[in-house]
Design a protein that fits this description.
- The protein is α+β, with helices and mostly antiparallel strands and 390 residues long.
- The protein folds into 2 domains: 3-218, no CATH class; 241-383, Reverse transcriptase/Diguanylate cyclase domain (Alpha-Beta Plaits).
- The protein is built from 11 helices and 6 strands.
- The strands form 2 sheets. The chain has a 4-stranded antiparallel β-sheet, sandwiched between helices.
- Helix 9 crosses helix 10.
- The longest helix is centred in the middle third of the chain and has 58 residues, at 174-231.
């Protein structure tokens, strides 16, 4: 196949995909546009009816008015009524873009407009061979709504056929109706080209906007992931050292204002190096994840759990005295001892040593002071045989 035809086929395929993607947006824009266009057209035709009726009453007696003179008045009247009904329907279905009725209203508006344009232009041929009304009317229809090229081709093609047939009934002179039909064909083709250009512009803008939205969503997702990585430990999902320290200092400041107790729990896995040496670092990672899960499931929702690094974890207990924290720490130690990890058909049991440090609002101890005392208590728990709370 010739490269030119392959390129055309490629463009047509891409356009069909783009048309399907922007269809919903086009229906929404069309319904919004109809809320202003339909009442405006109804009002304009109402003025035409009043103006035409006034002219006939002033210049003609009732028995002198011919059907050809009444026909434009009746056409404008019908057009005003139809667009008045369209205005009402648009108001009721303005949010029904997912319903067939809501999607069909803009197409119905274009079809009705073209029908009235054909009728008025054909009636004008009784007086003049000018195609100005038909040209302006079809161009206006091309701008009324966003229509896919295939749909607009059928609509404008049908309008031309109707005008072609109507001219044959009205104009008797062969040369005149032939010229009118040629001019009407050119006007219809121009209106269809305008409609296609309008649709392609809309499609391109919507496609670019969709790409921008996708890029923006991807950027936001990456920013959230980056923020998560900078605040959380990558392995366990717990707060990392910097974030935990920052949050603890904020909590200590709040506790001093409100006069409440604050306790931190420092825990370290016993003989964790043996896990890595025996089963490898992936097994060690599984154990660390298990510790994080047990800690999160044991503490309260208001408590903060962090990983300081390696096998060392820390927990902040707001509004908690040393006695209450000791009970929670004992429960946590027991849960850790009971929660074994299965790794390649092996059961890995781990225990933890825990050190506590607490402060009151009156003592005004900062995080570094609390951490130092908890670390000393943890060292004591290790020296006393591990798997205990001090």
């Amino acid at each position: 196949m010739h490269p030119l035809f392959i390129d055309i086929q490629h463009h047509l395929t891409r356009w069909r995909v783009e048309d399907q993607r922007v269809a919903l947006a086009a229906w929404q824009h069309n319904l919004q546009r109809m809320r202003y266009v339909a009442p405006a057209v109804a009002a304009l035709n109402g003025l035409c009816v009043m103006g035409w009726a006034t002219a006939l009453l002033v210049t003609h007696r009732a028995d002198q008015v011919t059907p050809w003179q009444l026909a434009p008045l009746v056409t404008h009247l019908l057009m005003a009524i139809c667009f008045g009904l369209l205005t009402s329907a648009t108001h009721r279905l303005r949010h029904a873009v997912h319903q067939r009725a809501g999607r069909s209203l803009p197409l119905l508006m274009v079809v009705l407009t073209l029908l009235f344009v054909v009728a008025l232009a054909a009636l004008c041929q009784e007086v003049t061979a000018s195609m100005t009304l038909f040209l302006i009317g079809t161009l206006a229809c091309g701008l009324l709504a966003y229509l896919p090229p295939r749909t607009s081709a059928w609509v404008f093609g049908a309008a031309y056929v109707l005008f072609f047939l109507a001219i044959g009934q009205i104009q008797a002179h062969d040369g005149q109706w032939l010229t009118s039909r040629i001019h009407a064909l050119a006007a219809t083709a121009l209106a269809w080209a305008v409609s296609v250009r309008l649709w392609r512009n809309f499609t391109t803008l919507q496609w670019q906007q969709a790409q921008l939205n996708d890029a923006h969503s991807e950027l936001q997702a990456k920013q959230k992931e980056l923020q998560r990585l900078t605040r959380l430990d990558g392995l366990t999902g717990l707060y990392n050292r910097n974030t935990f320290t920052e949050l603890t200092r904020l909590e200590l400041a709040r506790a001093q204002r409100q006069g409440s107790h604050t306790t931190i729990v420092l825990l370290d896995l016993d003989f964790f190096k043996r896990v890595n040496d025996t089963w490898g670092h992936p097994a060690g990672d599984a154990v660390l994840k298990n510790v994080a899960a047990v800690a999160n499931n044991t503490v309260r929702s208001t408590d903060l759990v962090g990983r300081l690094g390696g096998e060392e974890f820390i927990i902040l207990l707001p509004n908690t005295s040393l006695e209450a924290a000791r009970k929670l720490a004992e429960k946590l130690r027991a849960n850790m001892q009971a929660a074994a990890v299965t790794w390649e058909q092996h059961v890995i049991k781990t225990t933890v040593s825990i050190g506590l440090a607490s402060t009151t609002a009156a003592e005004k101890r900062d995080f570094d002071h609390l951490y130092a005392h908890a670390d000393k208590a943890l060292y004591t728990a290790k020296s006393l045989g591990r798997n205990r709370v001090v």
